[in-house]
Amino acid sequence: MKRFSSVCLCVSAAVGSLIAADPPALPSKTASDAISAPDLLKHITVLASDQFEGRAPGSKGEELSVKYISEQFKALGLKPGNPNGSYIQEVPLAGITSAPALSFSVGGKTTALKFPDDFVATSARLQPEQKAENTDIVFVGYGVVAPEYGWDDYKDVDVRGKTILMLINDPAIPDPTDPRQLDPKMFKGRAMTYYGRWSYKYEIAAQKGAFAAVIIHETEPAAYPYSVVMTSWAKENFEIDAPNKNMDAVPVRSWITLDVAKKLLADSGQDFDKLKKAAITKEFRPVSLGAKATFDVKQTVRSFKSRNVVGKIDGSDPKLKDEWVMYTAHWDHLGRHEELKGDQIFNGALDNASGVATILEIAKACTKLPSPTRRSILFMATTAEEAGLLGAKYYANNPLYPLEKTLADINIDGANAWGKTADLEDVSDGNSTLDEMLAQAAARHARLLKPNSQPEKGSFYRADHFEFSKLGVPSLYPGSGKEVIGKPPGFGMEKRNEYIAKHYHQPSDEVNPAWDLSGAVDDAVLLFEVGYQVANGDKFPEWTAGTEFKAKRDEMLRKSGK
Ligand SMILES: [Zn+2]
Fold first, then answer.
1. How many Å lie between the centroid of ligand 1 and the Cα of residue 540?
2. What pLDDT, on a 0 to 100 scale, did the predictor assign at position 245?
3. Is residue 478 within a helix (H) or strand (E), and if so which, with residue range?
4. What is the radius of gyration, based on Cα positions, of the chain?
5. How far apart are CA 157 and CA 302, in angstroms?
6. Distance 334 CA to ligand 1 centre (A)
7. What per-residue confidence (pLDDT) applies to 507?
8. What distance in Å separates the CA atoms of residue 492 and residue 452, rounded to the nearest whole number?
9. Which residue numbers in the chain have pLDDT < 50?
10. φ, ψ for residue 387 (rounded to 5)?
11. What is the predicted pLDDT for the residue at 214?
12. pLDDT at 462
């Protein structure tokens, strides 16, 4: 510890220069050894018990979960994470149920679409109705504005008040040297970037002032069939109940089936395949279809309060203690579905009682350090992840400590329950220097950090840390390893596939006596080391050049004078 602090002094004097600092020291063995499999199992068993009823936000399960996690934080000696002196950050939520109508008019002929078979439409605006007649329909390609790729699908075209029609996923640009694959220099090739996600497309539509943003569904680029669009949008959806009632959101968010889109385009004298081809070039310009869309989206909105649970450990360095490293894991799951026969409770043992247990164990390890880290550490169990990362989103937009002073978010969603592994997976996809730190931590323990095995699925954009990334805070999201030590090759993958097929988001995601949490302990130790090094280090973690969140972070740090 001593050697380390003297190194720090001289290097922090040289901030901004290119002098390479020694890697920060490692936490004491006593601290790392505090992370234990029996304690992980104890926390998971409580949180995933039937008594907690699947931990739905707004339910009795929320009361019990919030109480359990805040009591654990307190018992570990963590201070209340909210500057108001409590372990709670209240999260105002709204449940929205939509009854939408949509029709297209081309050449004097009007066609009403069938909900939800042909389309879905809803509004994040917390209002009873969104209505607009005969809005101009403009095809905007992929609807992407990505300065780092010199890409702008909108050009100078004014889409205010209009209905914009767009493709899902990133622009699928063929590699000039091998047209059988995607150009690795554009939108990360096969991997999905944030520009490919529906949430991005609705956000840019709002910035452009469109009335409605309509995504054309295609199974392969969306990574799921239209039936998934139907089940996820034609039910109650949740949003943050913001003071502005989300009036900055695009008024109408919609999806249509590929068949409906093809017909609309053909009726307008256009061809889907030709437009799609034009949309993969930088020269693409929006195409006005000469067709009109009429929307009437009626909705019922109910408001309620949920809670993030926060506990902190103050940093030991008077100058750095107002800088933060965060660990997050969502406590919520899908609750109890009374219409089901048999088991009705979605216990969410791996998803994500195991993640909450992991941050509790990392918190415990932090309390066993001979002295606290220089910077402060905030542990947060988030609400409403399953409803769209809402607890994390609320925190990121209403942070308890400034984001420009938040060095990193390390998120855990699902621990490894099948024993020690030689590897672990980098779902964050090498996006920031945190990934390098994790790779080094793995190497120290004779393990290997492997690249994201399914980057085209966009998993990085589908867990809580992403709400931090989006606003610029570097974040880390590891996935379990697959090479289970002492088991035949393929065992880890088999367990993974079995989980996805049988237990993921099912009542059977329960504590299993066959589990071996020794691998989850190993993973937690790596994440503890990374967080420790960031909290004690001389440098802020940085986004990799070309990553879509880098510009935001650079601007944030510039403004704060970093
Ligand atoms: Zn989860």
1. 27
2. 96
3. strand 478-479
4. 24
5. 37
6. 10
7. 92
8. 15
9. 1-20
10. -90, 5
11. 98
12. 87
